[in-house]
Amino acid sequence: MSEEFTICVETERGAALVAELLSLWENSVRASHDFLADGGVEFYRPYVEEALRSLPLLVTARRAGRAAGFMGVTSSHLDALFAAPEYFGGGAGAMLMREALARGVRSVDVNEQNARARRFYEKHGFRAVSRRETDDCGKPYPILRMELAEDD
User: Which of 50, 93, 94, 130 would give a disulfide with 145, using CB separation of 3.0 to 4.6 Å?
Assistant: First the structure.
């Protein structure tokens, strides 16, 4: 089922927006990252909160004024893309991805264990080009670097 969403570039990073997106992130991760060890969400929360405040580009997909998903971009790299669980498969992520591609995104890192996310990025033209054994925090969650496949 496709929903109507509005894309919003978030220039003001006030406490209410950060809290809204942090809650969305937590709900999304709890629904999609079953590979995280106990306490994983709590461990990563401060890093995500800081990222929400400092990402060069923060974009939300909104429906009826509420965030259905968000993405963060640095240059041509997609730093984050999360949808609220109730919108999984509902078009919010795809709309954000189209926005990311239009803004020149060409790479993304994804947890290897998150098969749904890998398939999502593959559907949008990304292919794994490298693998790291640990995430940016040194945790044992392998990360795949995916890059947009260029048409020949």
Answer: 130
